Amino acid sequence: MRVGFFQYAVIWRDRQANLDYIAAKIKQETFDLLVLPEFFTTGYAMDTKEEILPFAEDLRHSPTVQYLAHILAETGNGYISGTIPELDQGILYNTSILVGAQGLVASYRKIHLPDYEKRFFQAGDTAVVYPSNQAKIGLSICFDCWFPQQTALLKLQEVEVICHSSCFGGSVTPTIIPIRALENQCFYISCNRIGEEYFEDELESYRGESQIVNPDGQILAKAGQEESLTLVTINLQEVNHPNFGSLITKDFQSEHEKYNITL
Prior knowledge:
Layout: E1 2-7, H1 15-26, E2 33-35, H2 49-52, H3 63-75, E3 79-88, E4 91-100, E5 103-109, H4 115-118, E6 129-131, E7 136-141, H5 148-156, E8 161-165, H6 173-184, E9 187-191, E10 194-199, E11 202-207, E12 211-213, E13 219-222, E14 228-233, H7 252-256
Parallel strand pairs: 1-2, 2-3, 7-8, 8-9
Antiparallel strand pairs: 1-14, 3-4, 4-5, 6-7, 9-12, 10-11, 12-13
């Protein structure tokens, strides 16, 4: 399975410019699954709810979903994931979408919101895994990775590959990703962005360092702080069968299922 991430400097408040830029970069590539950053259509910095609303989308009629589906149909590629602001019955969510050539196949509303997002967004309450014809794909967003419970809920649904769209500047998050992959014996694709934005007149920078990690917690690919379109081939037979596992147990999944984890 060919998977990867596209780490770039999201263009602030210009959905079409971002979509066109993504299309231009990936049209010559071949992949089964590609992960984009958090809020890849808008940028992250918004000071009021009114600034977000023009870019919030109804997933039933999403221009972003339609555009990505068209790209995938045109290129013959698999799926693209990333997050957009979702508006549903007047409520805003930070929502990860999983799009195929047929359109939206899954969506997940971020459960763990940092205080900055709580000013505008409602938290979700459901962990989502989509069973594609190649892999069981789980969705996670930025701060979610700090909480092992969210990934454990994906594991109980037998997740094989986790898509993690991010927008962070600190140094801690990249250290967490290999742990989540290792403890859940799955592949983990974390895509952060690069560039700068102003938060209430304060300039903040994003650190990049997107990465792809295998079920042994080994980093298969990691970007620096520059734009990076990175694709690797993974072997799903490694899920639940990390190298160290043969010394411990042949059945990791049943061990995880001993816990009845619910929200």
